[in-house]
What does this fold into?
Amino acid sequence: MMAFLQSHDCCPFLHSFSSNNAAEKMNTNFLLTKISFVVCFLLPAFIAPAQNTPAAIQVNQVGFYPNAPKVAVVTVKATSPDFFVIGWQSKDTVLRGKLSEKIQSANSSIITRIADFSSLKKTGTYQVAIPGSHSSYPFVIKEKVLAEVAIAVLKSYYFQRVSMPLDEEYAGKWKRPAGHPDTAVLIHPSAVSEKRPAGTVISSPGGWYDAGDYNKYIVNSGITMATMFAAYEDYEVYYRQLKTGIPGSNNRLPDILDELLVNLRWMLTMQDPADGGVYNKCTNASFDGMVMPGVTTAPRYLVQKGTAATLDFAAVTAQAARIFSQFKSQLPGFSDSCLQAATSAWRWAEANPAMQYDQEAINKKYQPQISTGGYGDRNYDDEFFLASCELFVTTKDTRYLSLLKQQLNRPIRIPSWNQVALPGLYTLLRLKPHMDAETSALLKDVQKRLLAFADTLANGVNGNAFRTVMGRSSSDFNWGSNSNAANQGVLLINAFLLSNNKKYMDAALSNIDYILGRNATGYCFVTGIGTRSPMNPHHRPSVADSITEPVPGFVVGGPNPGQQDKCTYAFKEPETSYTDVACSYASNEIAINWNAPLVYLLNAFEALQSKVGYSK
Ligand code: 9MR
Ligand code: 9MR
It folds into this structure.
């Protein structure tokens, strides 16, 4: 990987020139730039690094809005304090600046220097270079610069669809036959009820594959759906016109809702109509091999109901009831069915407030043993909170208020599959439901605490060696770390929506820059985007389809010093612990809950770019 490579300085001219006094320097600036670039940058050695070689200067490989902050990070030893922004084709210098002092990263042994070129606002394609034949990958400055990647990360869900073929018209070269019909799945012995003895056949088709594996998990669908429904509610006008090239793009529903319906309809099959409880997952007994979806034949099971799954389901269906109530002519009766599903799930959870999904315990009792993902949450406070928020806002029924109120003072935590309180707060703060004076006052306090939390994130940027919010703490780097970067961004945008303070958007943007390339690995972490992006994600179709390029639009998990997969990594420090090999499910898998906050984040910027003043 990059970062530690030292290269020979091919440009001695720059050194002799740069020892001139200041006045002379000013006068010779233009000449110097011309000479240095003719001498250095036009040499073959200055051609931008190829996709498989790391760059010496890390930058968002997609690009920047004209009036947004723009930063590149030098991760090799710089022999001169100067940096240049040059035209990608012309190689002409368009801006010359001074690098910052050295910064020692807190998350690895890397030492960086910052090149701030925010003053460059002219539309174009550029790269950043420093003397010594070091340069960045290319990037673009223009309005709507994130549009393509924003659509790609949303369209990734289409590629995860279960039980239906992906047609060439929508999937291009990644077209494939349907996988896992799931029209005849078996009730696992862990999931028996009076009307459904073990082996009962249930139909549970459709939905999205969870990740690189082919199973479908309600708990992980919970946070994923909540995050993307929130995106729709926050930027409804934007999403109503957004086209993503999926089937039904011309129907009378926004594309994002068409896609969310695919998984929602599957989720609805996971509820036991007899009691409202929801099964944890629709799964193989053990993971399928690294094969295409259409060729697997292993039986599929619905396993034990659980409190976390049932409350996540209640929250998502309550949110769906609210959103689809605006589409009654397109989907007659659907909103009401969602609400019924939500309230019966809630009742089940009230009666079963601590039903853990403990796979190890289940495997001691029942056959076949289940070894697929556990998503075994043991704490249900946050799920109760989220479900009560969504149910209260949708129904205005005060019976959900007391629990909600009890928990309003809970500490703010970045969301993940087992931390789902924050999306509930976002919903309350965004939709400001009518509440009694005491609860309203509590909510005001929550807003204050959310902004204070956003301040601690935003204030961390300047001390960071990559000038990102991500990496403020080394605990940011765990399994699925890129989703932490995205979720921090979502929090900061919510802070902006509440305060109208642009500093939160600048901070959120730093994490987009992180994900798209300004990080210690030098990768743009989204497949198919940028110059150097993951080629070997732990994603069964991408491994098995014999197409060189992975299926596009997925953010990989990212740096994770846990290295639980025991694959070979070149580096082991928190922010460099990433390896682009298919073996690496702990750093290079993809997952629906990791893409979701990135869908929110990127599309929010596209929706807000003019309001913030980044674009006209
Ligand atoms: O492919 C599986 C991936 O989706 C999971 O995140 C990961 C951890 O549960 O497990 C992967 O499957 C591996 C299994 O755990 C062990 N044998 C090899 C499997 C494929 O790499
Ligand atoms: O994202 C999950 C991560 O937080 C856990 O540490 C890890 C091990 O339990 O599992 C991750 O989730 C995987 C799930 O179990 C199976 N599908 C793939 C998911 C992403 O790796």
About this structure: The first strand starts at residue 57 and ends at 58.
